[in-house]
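[step 3/7] fold_predict: job queued, chain A
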Amino acid sequence: MKKLSLLICIICFSTFAKTQDIAVFPPNWYTQMQDSNLQIIVKAKGISNFQFENISNEIIVSNSIAGKHPDYLLVNLKITKNAKTGIKKFVFRNGSKKLNLNFELKEKNKRPVPALEQNDFIYLLMPDRFANGDVKNDVVKNYTETSHNRKEPFDRHGGDLKGIQERLPYLKSLGATALWLTPFQENNEASQSYHGYAITNHYQTDSRYGTNQDYFNLVNACHQQNQKVIIDLVYNHIGDGHWMNTDQPFPSFIHQFDTFTRTNYRANTLMDPYAAAIDKKIFTEGWFDKHMPDLNLKDSLIAKYMIQQTLWWLNEAKVDGIRIDTYSYPEESFMKKCYQAIRKEYPEMSIFAEIWEHAVPLQSYFTPKEKNKMEDLQQVLDFQFCFAMDEFVQQPFGWTEGVSKLYYSLSQDYLYRDPYHHVTFIDNHDQDRFLSQVGGDINKLKTALGVMLTMRGIPTMFYGTEVLMQGKGPHGVIREDFSGGWPGDLKNKFEASGRSESENDLWNYIQNLAKWRANSDAIANGKFMQFAPQDGVYTYFRYSNNKTVMVSYNSNANEANIDLHRFKERINSSFTANDVIHQQQINIANKLKLAAKELKILEIN
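[step 4/7] structure written:
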């Protein structure tokens, strides 16, 4: 019966939308929400001159605000406690003129949200560059950008949601327990729309990726194989093709300057006691790029809009976590309000944020340790770990250099409330690939991945790392296609037979560590302890009541012998262990021998 009523709703709305050319944001809403207030923005010819009629005791009209553009009307409503699910008929009148809108109320998503845990392993991919499951949507009419050319790094290449869903068994086999897609919402931009961060419709999947239902199907398919899904949300800016910018019905939604003003990218102005006010203003209000208008999230109306679109996706798609783009750039007061609104509706929702800064104190500023758990952001994308890992494998040992860089970075975790759930990485979609940073040295890549997969935090890996992608330079080059994801590709690297010997060696290395850590109590529930680096050797432990894991790395060009008595806080000097990397049992007595540049991961019996 529910399916039938939904079908009737779609037919009614589609017919009405076709004849009346009407749209509403959000397109539907929910009963039993903690926040009973609903704000809708209606777009229709001349709608700003219409009044919304209170036609039901289930939904109460608070007020309406006419847009500066005649085709927009904002209405504030209250969903009462006795509101029932189903189609609600909204009526708008202007004298003898009348407009009807069928608006659906659904039941709030009550699915328990499984939070991201320490033994999860996140796989990050860009939909346009992973796999093409439907060549018919490579080019779609009525989009500003119609080019499709895989030889051009900044053009669209044709990857889509169906292609991703078809490759889910591959991700499962690799050991990924969570999937993070860069934004898939509509980016109707004139160029470089493939990356997804210039959204032009918050409620619509970009047709070149598929439909909203395709995304819902992908999430459901992930859940069926026990994988979590993370949605990537952008609050700081929109694409300049968004109706908020092209029509500007509410000019206060966007930060405006007399001439184009780009952000200065200086988040330190927010906490710098000596910062000039103009620098802080330009950081917060300057545009991220010429085609990315900056949102004025101090405005309560756009703030409500952005929070609602978040809750809409959480209800409709039933995702398990949120990654917040450019978290430090919007107004701080809004980001706190948004975080609190999400946690109010879904207290267990995992939320982590991009804070691309260059010091631990700057990064920790956005996750204040002393506040209540519900009040402020807790987890971040750990850029400090990323920066430290580059030096970890590249630089020779020194008091603060080489492996000491990571040691000192981690020693500042006291600034955080919960660093165990920070999301760690060694590269991402905005950086040169790690393999290119280390000059193609696969052993250095293995070391970095081995540390990331045993370190405190939740690791994420950028797609293609497992098959030795090493793009460097412009973003379009870094974000290369996954070979085998397109019909006619000469090599299919989704299959072992399509990978080289070196690629399979790394792939198997990652799979082994990923599947081991998924079942390791020391990783899932363990604490972290590190010992100060000595003579170029860095050792740390993950330990729970049931298991202890010892990780040691010799950064020297020569063999090292470690006296194990030093680690008596965690282990005996003699023990039997599972060598996780080599998958064999070994006996250790008093000393641990490490070859030059060797990483050893020992699960101690």
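[step 5/7] annotate
Residues 122-520 form a domain with the TIM Barrel fold (CATH 3.20.20.80).
The longest helix spans residues 2-20.
exit 0
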